[in-house]
Automatic annotation (TrEMBL):
Residue ranges constituting the Polysaccharide biosynthesis domain according to the UniProt record: 1-123
InterPro entries from the UniProt entry: PBDC1-like_dom_sf, PBDC1_metazoa/fungi, Polysacc_synth_dom
UniProt-recorded name of the protein: Polysaccharide biosynthesis domain containing 1
Domain of life from the UniProt record: Eukaryota
Organism: Dromaius novaehollandiae (Emu)
Recorded GO CC terms: cytoplasm
Length: 140
């Protein structure tokens, strides 16, 4: 139960961070460049704005993720610790929009989302709540 509370707190802190700081300026680790480079080398076609859980959890996906994750053992602290990851990056953490992932998967996907502009919607919505409602209505 303690790990679940810690994972939830981490998720809450992270969402508050991308809501208040322009995500393109965020560094999540000391090795963001390495994580991002290896992530896009290994998962060049992975759609990160809205994740398909099968891309993380299916057996073929696990076979691809395992070596990616293991290269960060000893590089990223608690690289295989459980954490929560949003499926749709335009939305907050909810039961329907959250999947359990390893910390390095979280870092890889969120660093890519920050660098590729996917998390901008969270930041701009928090800065201007009126435009957020219009954006959500337009995308529905």
């Amino acid at each position: 139960m303690m790990w679940a509370m810690k994972a939830y707190q981490h998720a809450e802190v992270y969402f508050n961070l991308i809501s208040s700081v322009d995500p393109k300026f965020l560094n999540l680790t000391k090795v963001d460049d390495q994580i991002y480079g290896e992530f896009r080398k290994t998962f060049s076609d992975l759609k990160i704005d809205v994740l398909d859980p099968e891309e993380l959890k299916s057996e073929p996906a696990k076979e691809k993720w395992r070596p990616f994750c293991m290269q960060f053992e000893g590089v990223v602290e608690d690289f295989n610790y459980g954490t929560l990851l949003r499926l749709d990056c335009s939305k907050d953490y909810t039961e329907e929009n959250t999947i359990f992932a390893t910390r390095i998967q979280f870092f890889a996907i969120e660093i890519a989302r920050n660098r590729e502009g996917c998390n901008n919607i969270v930041y701009t919505s928090a800065k201007n709540p009126a435009s957020a409602g219009a954006m959500e209505a337009a995308s529905a």
